[in-house]
Amino acid sequence: xxxxxxxxxxxxxxxxxxxxxxxxxxxxxxxxxxxxxxxxxxxxxxxxxxxxxxxxxxxxxxxxxxxxxxxxxxxxxxxxxxxxxxxxxxxxxxxxxxxxxxxxxxxxxxxxxxxxxxxxxxxxxxxxxxxxxxxxxxxxxxxxxxxxxxxxxxxxxxxxxxxxxxxxxxxxxxxxxxxxxxxxxxxxxxxxxxxxxxxxxxxxxxxxxxxxxxxxxxxxxxxxxxxxxxxxxxxxxxxxxxxxxxxxxxxxxxxxxxxxxxxxxxxxxxxxxxxxxxxxxxxxxxxxxxxxxxxxxxxxxxxxxxxxxxxxxxxx
Amino acid sequence: xxxxxxxxxxxxxxxxxxxxxxxxxxxxxxxxxxxxxxxxxxxxxxxxxxxxxxxxxxxxxxxxxxxxxxxxxxxxxxxxxxxxxxxxxxxxxxxxxxxxxxxxxxxxxxxxxxxxxxxxxxxxxxxxxxxxxxxxxxxxxxxxxxxxxxxxxxxxxxxxxxxxxxxxxxxxxxxxxxxxxxxxxxxxxxxxxxxxxxxxxxxxxxxxxxxxxxxxxxxxxxxxxxxxxxxxxxxxxxxxxxxxxxxxxxxxxxxxxxxxxxxxxxxxxxxxxxxxxxxxxxxxxxxxxxxxxxxxxxxxxxxxxxxxxxxxxxxxxxxxxxxxxx
Lengths: 316, 326
What we know:
heterodimer, A: alpha/beta, Rossmann fold, 6-stranded mixed sheet, 4-stranded antiparallel sheet, B: mainly alpha, two-stranded antiparallel sheet, 15 helices, 2 strands, about 0% strand
């Protein structure tokens, strides 16, 4: 098995240039699905969402620790993105309640969730193509006076605030190495640069919780490194990060806590090194009947097998 | 061939109140379609509400000019709310379906005999101009020069109409370069992204729908002042002419709708004068004068097609944007 694993391993996994400082001691008691956290920022209770006969998400209890990087992983169709949409107000659950920073979010529309300081990005990047990079950034700023229709007509009311936002945006763009692109249309950026722009734009509002939906999807390895660094920086600046990801190397390197979903449920939780050994996680990725030959869907299975091999390989 | 008369008549359209009305209605559509991405196919309905709101307020209720103006604007705000509340949460194409139907409902309500005592049914309304004429500060006589020479009432109407167009253009220009306009343009690109940044997208779309609709309503009043209010003027074709003007000038521009309207009306008038005289002079022996009247729309259509093919961003549109059109 170990020989196979070595040959199946990819060339060189991207690693952040800085050594991540892991946050530990996040949970109370056993690291089991739905375990309590020392200082949770997001708590979901009995959140359920069905599409017709399909139960996409059915989470009894889950807590996201504050000030740490939490990864939400699971095989395709596990309900990760649906849970994301529910937590950010982009979708309405059939049942359940959830709180952010002690405030209930049930029935709160997406834009108000964002204003509370819980900002998300999207799996398919949503850069605003025919706006300049700078305008994209400025749109992210909170509480703008000039965004009221009537005050918009009186520039003297918002000019100072606009200048402050512009300086802040330029600062962020410089950090994300996009400052030379500030007057270009966002549509002219590459896929990876759009991911960076989306993340930088999210930071314009000084969020407390940043939710990243597959931040690495479709990004080349060079940019992956800088994205990893940026995510680690969010934590060192005191923000909480929750992200969905398929790339196990990345999860292992930067996550402080991992929540594993399968078929809509949270099946395991824990420290990234521990959780990968959990039989429930292996079941989730390989299917509960992985020792039986079903004779179909070989490709999906092969993908999952390689994901698990990657994990075990990394562990050594 | 009286070329002088043909060009003279075409030049008249350059500053006619009708041109101003179309320019203003197209400016409203620019706010809806060009800046916000709202597919409003019911601009004719907003214009009808302005024309009828103004005329009925004066004829039936004896309101002063400003009162009649406010009634028209109020009616279009209510109309925009009725259209927007159910549809703005849905995808863009639903608004298109609802607006095109709602504009027809408005026109048919004004046409039906049931309300003939108020609306004048298919014959429409007239005789509401005295109140506006009474506000005219100009002395009797004629003003202007050449093709732009008019009597006192027509000059007064042109001054008011184009002042409103200029004010509206400045208003749109200012608001679109403010943070409000940035949110509006963001919604055009991707409303979920804007929502994720903490903006109340629904409220912004509603504000845009009302704002553009009110511009259309004021355009309807200007459109009604040089003529009578007749329901058949407010058919769906009116909306499409305004879309043609908007695309001609450039959808997300301020000057585009205004210059587009001028070009549209000058061309239309030029072709109608030219064809009528060409038929008279026997240049087009296969054609009667009635057929000639229809030909001008064909020629204007061809002219607009050429512009859209060779300059798809419109006259004032930004060429750079075209590289990224999805």
